Amino acid sequence: MNLHDLKSVCGSCTIRELCLPAGLSDEEVHLLDQHMDHRQVVSKGDYLYRVGDPFRSLFAVSSGFFKTVLLHEDGRGQITGFQMMGELLGLEAIHSDHHVCDAIALEDSAVCAISFDQFEQLGQIMANLQHRFNKDLSREIVREHNVMMLLGSMRSEERLANFLIDLADRHAHRHQSSVEMTLRMTREDIGSYLGLKLETVSRLLSRFHDEGLLEVRGRRVKILDRNALALRRTETHN
Amino acid sequence: MNLHDLKSVCGSCTIRELCLPAGLSDEEVHLLDQHMDHRQVVSKGDYLYRVGDPFRSLFAVSSGFFKTVLLHEDGRGQITGFQMMGELLGLEAIHSDHHVCDAIALEDSAVCAISFDQFEQLGQIMANLQHRFNKDLSREIVREHNVMMLLGSMRSEERLANFLIDLADRHAHRHQSSVEMTLRMTREDIGSYLGLKLETVSRLLSRFHDEGLLEVRGRRVKILDRNALALRRTETHN
DNA sequence: AGGGTACAATGACATAAGTCAAAATCTGAT
DNA sequence: ATCAGATTTTGACTTATGTCATTGTACCCT
């Protein structure tokens, strides 16, 4: 039995309610299972897909952590998101039938692949699934709106505070500690996502640490004063 | 007969191929027409919808020009996009059944409203339409990725050059001049979208003007040297 | 266990873009 | 046509963040 090519089974999946099948009935999930593709392991540092790869499947993160990177011709890169358990990868590729960014595992991970052709067919006979999927696409648009707000209108401290609170909330939603977290990405990755340089991120973390909002030891972060941190997300935080 | 409440008819619409029905057969468009809601006029400065409004319809811009603005609690606002003829408004609202940004007409405009409930039903019986819509949602995600790149990794000059070229291309795609354009938005709007202050936008326009890339007279812009302008979009433009 | 490579922290300094202010221009209403 | 308010331009100055350089730390591989 090969871990790299295991059939996905949403029906018995522990994160079913965090993922694509959330809200579907047992029968519907069973139907979805019959159309699921394989399960796939991706080691830390490996690419799940790259710019230009033909688009065949959507991926649901089953375990682990990913980043998606948009590459600019002149070598610059922009991290457009970090994906954890239950989140979908590949939505950007539907438009052109090709992936337009790289997806890279930041720790040993596993994904469930969903053939998009089959998924669309299934959507035709399962209004619920299609509706959920429309919502997932819309949610991604909303998330990106919020990142635009962050990048376009916030100062560095606000950006980092938002980032940390968002990360904590996503952990909480997965029943993981939203107080102690280990960051899966480098300071440079955080900087890229937030439109800052790694030195700035490092300085801000030190500042939050010195001010007693966080305890930072390398990639281990402990949120000591969530309220105070949350206030730093906005201009008017006196 | 009231312009404010005219039945939409995609079948005879001049921008049919720029809009939602692009690529559909005549029969399919006919079916779509039967499910279209009303046509609606929006005067310059008016809101098509506001944050918190319940989501009932998607809107296709039939004529005119809109901006969408995301409001932050502390009063700051971020423009998340400018929409012209054939583009869809309201995609962000599917997720929560409520609009999460304001849509404001920047000139006298008209939109076609599409009841989303009916649209989803139609998608169930018309795979082509559903497929196109998935692509439209994905395209919006890609567009926002590119804005994130712009806001997160580019310098002010590059941002403005990108903005102008993008605008020109969208005009060209609509068979409008991509050389002479009149900007529908203020310098402040441009600045908000690009994460810059209006003074910076003004200075950059003056600079491009002085360098002979553009002719700028208020909101009339003429692109004199498209190639040179296109080069300014990237770091390595010596 | 040790040694090498990647990552992170910190200081000194540079600079792109922001801020504040004044003048110029445009626009729309009467 | 005229005026008032909105928008744009431009200048002088400030500042947040970037850049460069150094040292410190952690992690991975044999």
From TrEMBL, chains A, B:
Molecular-function annotations in GO: DNA binding; DNA-binding transcription factor activity
Which superkingdom is the protein from? Bacteria
Question: Which Pfam families does this entry report, sorted A to Z?
Answer: cNMP_binding, HTH_Crp_2
Which residue numbers delimit the Cyclic nucleotide-binding domain? 20-140
Q: Does the keyword Cell inner membrane apply?
A: no
Q: Name one GO cellular component term.
A: cytosol
The UniProt record lists the HTH crp-type domain at 154-227
Q: Which residues cross the membrane?
A: none
What keywords would UniProt list here? DNA-binding, Transcription, Transcription regulation
Annotated PANTHER family: CRP FAMILY TRANSCRIPTIONAL REGULATORY PROTEIN, FUMARATE AND NITRATE REDUCTION REGULATORY PROTEIN
**Protein name from the UniProt record:** Fumarate and nitrate reduction regulatory protein
Recorded source organism is Ferrovum myxofaciens
